[in-house]
Amino acid sequence: MTQILTIGKYFKNKFGEKVYKVPISISGFTCPNIDGTVAKGGCTFCENESFSPNLTDKSKFKLNLYSKENPYLEKQLLQLEFQFNATKERLENKFGAKKFIVYFQSFTNTYAPLDTLKALYEKALSFENVLGLSIGTRTDSITDETLDYLEELSNHSLPKYLINGKMKSNTYEIWIEYGIQSIFDTTLEKINRGHNFENIKEWINKTKKRNLLVCGHLIFGLPDETQEMMLQTVTESIKLNIDSIKFHPLYVTKNTLLAIDYSKDNFKPISEHLYIDTLVKSIQLLPQQVSISRVTAGINNDSLIDPSWCLDKHQQMKKIKSALLKENLFY
Asked: Which domain holds residue 192?
């Protein structure tokens, strides 16, 4: 039986205990595919508020890479602190959590002037028992200047701590989570992504050259993609030397362009059987050192249109673990 390297196991091996990610949603952030810089309307599947459970302020103020000022920075810093403290307390009470990664999850979290990013990232790292950052973004929404700064952060030493009775020290964990989704430009165009695979390769390579950690997000079930195409996306993503991977099924939610295509019978979601089969084959392709940060996703509310199997993540996980066990893989 082969033990799969999950991101949880990676953290426990490195830090000697479980590390919990604290998701953060900061108002004022958007993406170049929503504000019209590279495209209009966002990706066809995106209704971003459904991925922003912590966001209560739906401010119309939006940042971009060229913003000259940010009058809402103090408010954003307060949002960050409030969300972190609330989630940290819940995790401590429920799981006895002691160590944390601050996860800038919703929207495109490098799509802002560097001064704003510095203030937010350094505030996050100042919180007690925080070991690092995980920053969700797009490969067309980050700059060399920001990568240079993050490389500097990644070289800062953490306080020493005990692992198996021995004192250890590490530097901050700085993860960049890039939405790869697909390696096929025809698919990226269909989902209105606003950039091509060449852009993805360029910026992941730049990120890795700075010794930053990269998690790649892949979506299975994108329009007109076959299983062979999905597996090719996995293979080519591995070649980019990513450190971790997240797998997502494409599901249809209300208030998206994809919902319109679905209503016109122009899009049919991936079946649960095909998703799980593709997932198992993908995991078998992964090198030992590449961790898995997620094997599926879903949304348990009335915004989900289809497929219905994405409503119950617990049932998904049971079926996925069972399928993996049949291949002598333990998740």
From this structure: 2-330
Using one digit for the tens of pLDDT, what is the confidence trace for 184-222? 999 999 999 999 999 999 999 999 999 999 999 999 999
Q: Which string of DSSP letters, residue by residue, matches 224-238?
A: T--HHHHHHHHHHHH
Identify the CATH number of the domain in which residue 64 sits: 3.20.20
Instruction: Tally the domains of the chain.
Output: 1
Residue carrying the six token digits 């990120």: 207
DSSP string, 99-160: EEEEEE-SS-TT-S-HHHHHHHHHHHHHSTTEEEEEEEE-TTS--HHHHHHHHHHHTSBPPP
Provide the 10 A C-beta neighbour count for residue 264: 8
- Amino acid found at 38: V
Q: What are phi and psi of 181, to 5 degrees?
A: 70, -60
Q: pTM score > 0.70 for this model?
A: yes
> What's the rounded Cα separation, in Å, for the pair 227 and 245?
18
Length of the chain: 331
